[in-house]
Amino acid sequence: MEKHTMLGQNTLRYFSLFILTLQTTLTVLAMRYSRKQTEGGKDLYIATTLVLVSELIKFMFCLILLLIQKSGSVEQLLKALGSEVIFKPSETAKLAIPSSLYTIQNNLILLALSSLDAATFQVTYQLKILTTAFFSVLLLRKDIKAFQWLALIVLMSGVILVQFSSDGKQKEANIVPSNPHKHLIGMLAVVASSLSSGFAGVYYEKLLKESAQPSVIIRNIQLGIFSIIFGTAGVVINDWDKVSQRGFFDGYTSVVWLVIMLQAMGGLVVAAVIKYADNILKGFATSVSIILSCLCSYVVLHDLNLDLTFVLGTGLVILATFMYGIQSHNTPFIGSNSSNNLIVDKDENEDISRASYTKVNNDRTYQKLSSTI
Length: 373
Prior knowledge:
Layout: H1 2-35, H2 47-69, H3 74-86, H4 89-93, H5 96-115, H6 118-124, H7 127-140, H8 146-172, H9 180-210, H10 216-246, H11 254-274, H12 279-301, H13 308-329, E1 357-361, E2 364-368
Antiparallel strand pairs: 1-2
């Protein structure tokens, strides 16, 4: 029975990773396509408004879910918001740091995709896997096995080869960047977003481990409050003149709205994945999506020219994915009484989004992992 339970957990685990890969691939391709629609001299949408609208939709969706949870009672909804959010300012304020980092990260990704071709963005953004591993060791004292470090090295070797492939093709074709500073800004945006992604995810996980947790809906509402505040600040500080002249929704198309919905639902998909995998394994699923995205860029967006170096780099990334997956598969998902093992507490029903938390009780470590709402 226990063997079948573990098999079922592993099946759900890899199915969730597949869904995340698909969601990430669609999101990046739609974002890139929306930022390169410049034919006819038409202005692109204002990027900061997209981030704000995504957070507003996500926040409204959470309010609707909470209303459904309270049997449609507005009075109970307001009561829950008051007791869990308004009258717990210290708990709510803890979400300010990860919310600000998530908002910055989303804006940086759009900036990078406005400045770089799809392939360069895809491979460079994988720095977030190493930053997540680094911050996991630094902040969570996570024990990463030597084989996993080897997988990370192999992965980054593949990423570097793909980067060289992109640069080599430009030199071979004697392509001179029309705006080298724009390219530099794009590269810096990718690096900064990778650092933000790694730190935000690990910091949020650490926060959940050290504090009492409300339901997943309340937690997302707390995150949403600050995300909306920071998103609004981004629009006002960076693009208020553009919004005043062009209008808030200028440049919005069906593709832009698709990006918004993918962004709004992305957190829920991540929540499902983290139930069965940590932040680093989630990063490897994203690595696979990088390969799929680059192939789609080659066929559809024509951002990439395939060569032997790119194919070799792709092979290394896929190899690294399997290497890390094998190591994770050898670690039992449901463990014994050892404090190093993870045990799913099936007696509790509350879920936590975007990260997991643990509690220590009688020398046993329970890991409560997030799932979909």
